Amino acid sequence: MAEGKKGFFGRLVEGLQKTRDNIVSGMDSIFSGFSAIDDDFYEEIEETLILGDLGIQTTMKIVEDLRAQVKEKHIKDPSECKALLMESMKRQMDLGENAYEFEHRRSVVLVIGVNGVGKTTSVGKLAGQLKDQGKKVVLAAADTFRAAAIEQLTEWAHRAGVEIIAQQEGSDPAAVVYDAVAAARARNADVLICDTAGRLHNKKNLMEELKKIDRIITREYPDAYRETLVVLDGTTGQNALSQARQFMEVADVTGIILTKLDGTAKGGIAVAIQSELGIPVKYIGIGEKIDDLQKFDADAFIKALFV
Questions:
Q1: Where are the domains of the chain?
Q2: Residue 225, SS3?
Q3: What is the Cβ-side half-sphere exposure of residue 199, based on CA atoms within 13 angstroms?
Q4: What angle do CA 195, 100, 290 make, to 5 degrees?
Q5: pTM above 0.85, yes or no
């Protein structure tokens, strides 16, 4: 494991401390406190997972899977269920083989999310990481409605050493994307990342805006691979799940960036999102530095939860 990766895992373990206190301390007492695997045993597991913000649906899937495994493997000792539970949780978070396809193709990445979730910061960090991989990256400052969003993204572009296409605050986001597509094509960029607005309180406007952006990319850059990432705040738990659902109504969402996992007791939401929505969490953020956004690794995540 590379040093940076190890450092990130260490920070992930720290970040998930509150979630771990919520879930694992309860689990350990169940596994050691029960002498037999019965309905009460499963009920206690259900309750603990729901408290960890995995949600009812996801919890039911995990517990049903656990029951099936116990039956199939003829397990009698409750302590043997811990490893099975970890495996069951991992199965809910399968990213699929093509999760990061956009990195290997000429692509346009739309990033959406409401104010305050760390969207613009995530765009900057992602740009920096792609640049470090040797990719040519262009940023589009298409969140033109939030005060200071353009300045913030410009700062990140300088920090990451990538080009940014921006207009005045309040200008048409689709016009910014049009200019950015032209720049990306002219400069033979590998990835164009568009920081777009996420005004869920006015879904109709947002839908129209995203449709307009989509039409421009389809017309001007038809051969580009498309990725749409929604940024969610991990500290909001089940609210993040309902936000993701709303964004799915207005955009063809292909992945989630889950931020602010450091210090939240609701880290279980990472499992719930993937299990309930069928959309993978592709990146998780646990801090402010450029390398504090990392690709989601289900093994590392579950290990950090149960360490």
A1: 3-91, 101-306
A2: strand
A3: 16
A4: 55
A5: yes
**Right CATH number for 101-306 from 2.40.128.20, 3.40.50.300, 3.20.20.80, 3.40.30.10?**
3.40.50.300
Using alpha carbons, list the distances in angstroms from residue 225 to 185, 232, 281: 13, 23, 19
Read off φ and ψ for residue 106, nearest 5 degrees: -70, 120
Confidence of residue 6 (pLDDT cuts 50, 70, 90): low
The DSSP 8-state label assigned to residue 264 in this structure reads -
CA dihedral 211, 182, 151, 156 (to 10 degrees): 100
The answer to whether the beta carbons of residues 283 and 266 sit under 8 Å apart is: no
pLDDT 10s digits, 160-204: 999 999 999 899 999 999 999 999 999 999 999 999 988 877 788
| Angle (nearest 5°) at CA 256 between 189 and 155 | 50
Q: What is the pLDDT of residues 93-145, one digit of tens each?
A: 876 767 899 999 999 999 999 888 999 999 999 999 999 999 999 999 999 98
DSSP-assigned letters across all residues of 155-222:
HHHHHHT-EEE---TTS-HHHHHHHHHHHHHHTT-SEEEEEE---GGGHHHHHHHHHHHHHHHHHH-T
